[in-house]
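Next up, sample data:
>
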Amino acid sequence: MAPHILNGDNMDTGEVSVGLLGPLQVAHRGRSYGVGPNRARALLAVLALSAGEVVSIDFLIDELLTDRPWKNPKNALQAGVHRLRDALERITGTPGTLMVRTSANGYLLDVPPARVDTHRFDTLAAQGAALLPHAPDEAVAVLEEALALWRGDALLDVLGGLRCQNQMSRLASQRLSTLEDLYEAKLLSGGYRVVNGLEQLALEHPERERLTELLMVALYRSGRQQEALATFQRVRSWLQDELGVEPGRKLRSLQRAILTQDVAIDARLPQTSVT
């Protein structure tokens, strides 16, 4: 199972990092490598999602060995760990047993969480969200750094079990929330052209009312009041037809504020001002 070189872009030298925000990759000394077959990728992904922590044997068996009955699932898991250790050793030159360590009841990937892109994304996204209310310019930089970690859908080429599936859903949702934070930070900062990007996202995700709010504010501030109101009506129709619900209180309040040209819209965003 020889690793294959993917590229040499944007990788730190000397240290090992694991990328899960896109096709799985292991980076070392300026190059990134693919790992295969799928069971090795899935095993690495599960261990990397809990980097630095022991993942129990029973959990790994439930997550990775559900495709068919196994006479001895522990032996099958040990064989998978052996293959993964071999692949990591060929990539890094470090003994595989030091990369994937054995504990009394499980295995541990000996990589700092900060060297796994999912962990770094979560940290940066939280930092950017905390900066948003009082330092939107700084928030823009941090949130853009977080989103730049994505190379495609999370765990794109990993066929794991429930843990991987849940993380795929969580990360996809968090990516959208971070994009919302980024556009709000840009609106608060001023000087950014955000309408086109927001229009595309709002069309793709009509269920996310915050995106619609941000788009309506951006349109209104650009002198496009009628388009802002038309956006509300479009999303309202979608919510009624698809989910059988009315828009939420914040979105309805924003529509009223635009109709009356409330000066609060020019001062602050609906997330913090229109109630």
